[in-house]
Write a structure and sequence with these properties.
By secondary structure, the chain is of the alpha+beta class. Helices cover 28% and strands 27% of the residues.
């Protein structure tokens, strides 16, 4: 009987120590996640000059702020996304914000995503820059005037790059 009580006491002690270790590990993991989130900058805080931009064949420069984990989009795919558009300032960074799907609609008070088909009805730079992006990702694009502002028309400065921040929300099945 004494041996059984001692065995139960030892098992209870080992079990409680194990739970304490698991709780400490879980807490440490949560602390590490919180620190990582604090270190990550929001896309609007990133300066393009500080980033290692990649370039498409058409001259669009891009940077994946968040690499998605879903399906990769290509020209001809229908996608749902959020976007924000800026004209570059004198330093080639985001200057004046032109529009954003994240801004509330004056009539509804809500933002709404943008549905589009890559390569159809978009400026070439958007389609080229978003092609290859993974669903769930966020990408910054710097689009040169020839495939950006010149396609937007005369109300935009024709000699300026445009910057897009695109959040690829979901792929739309055909």
């Amino acid at each position: 009987m004494k041996k059984t009580l001692v065995l139960i006491a030892v098992l209870l002690f080992a079990f409680s120590v194990s739970f304490a270790d698991d709780a400490e590990k879980a807490e440490a993991k949560e602390d590490a996640k919180a620190e990582t989130k604090m270190e990550k900058k929001e896309p609007k805080e990133l300066k393009l000059a500080d980033l290692e931009l990649q370039e498409t064949a058409s001259g669009v420069e891009y940077y994946d702020v968040v690499e998605g984990t879903g399906k990769v989009c290509k020209i001809g795919d229908k996608v749902e996304c959020h976007y924000t558009l800026w004209i570059t300032d004198e330093n080639g960074e985001r200057g004046e914000k032109i529009q954003s799907s994240k801004d509330p609609n004056p009539q509804t008070g809500k933002s709404s995503t943008f549905l589009c088909t890559l390569g159809q009805g978009l400026i070439q730079g958007w389609s080229d820059g978003m092609s290859g992006m993974k669903e769930g990702g966020t990408r910054l694009l710097r689009i040169p005037p020839a495939i950006g502002t010149k396609q937007l028309g005369p109300r935009f400065p024709q000699d300026k790059d445009i910057i897009f921040e695109i959040d690829f929300v979901t792929y739309i099945e055909k």
